[in-house]
Task: structure prediction
Amino acid sequence: MPDGLTAFRAYLESRGLKVTNPRLKIAETIFGQGGHFSADELADRVRAKNPRIGRVTVYRTLTLLAESGLLGRLDVGQGRAYYEPLHGVRRHDHLVCVQCGAIAEFRNDGIERMQDDVARRNGFTLTSQALKLYGYCAQCRPSLTPRPSALPARMPFAPPGTRPREERPTPERGARPGSPSSRTKPAADWPRRPFRF
Result:
């Protein structure tokens, strides 16, 4: 299996994009360090060694690496995101502290089997997966002073009752068939078929 840098070079060439020295230096820094990092932390680390590489180049290269599947993006709320190299890394999940933002990785074969089983029973082929558990880390737990603003602004599958129900407009009387107002459906219609767990 090729290393991350070789895979990134191959991705750029397959898309007809330039294989530039700054892009390779950024990828080399990412695959050399491992772990979680923010875009700003990476930019500082890259610019410490290569001051001529601009922040914009770092951000654009992060986007290319994420699009290639070699880099994962982990949104932890409050507009903060961390990245991690995925090339050659076993599937894993994350614990995120809602107070300080600490991230811990964990792997559980039972959870992995359950995710695969749920996908299979619902006719899905998994291309990726992300499980984030939010709570308090060992250092923040003793204080237990929750900061609700530390929670992600939008949790797509929030438990019932934790997010206000989204109301959609009902079709207007006399609307033309096929017009946007005649195609709207109440939010309760989704999903049409419940997932089997």
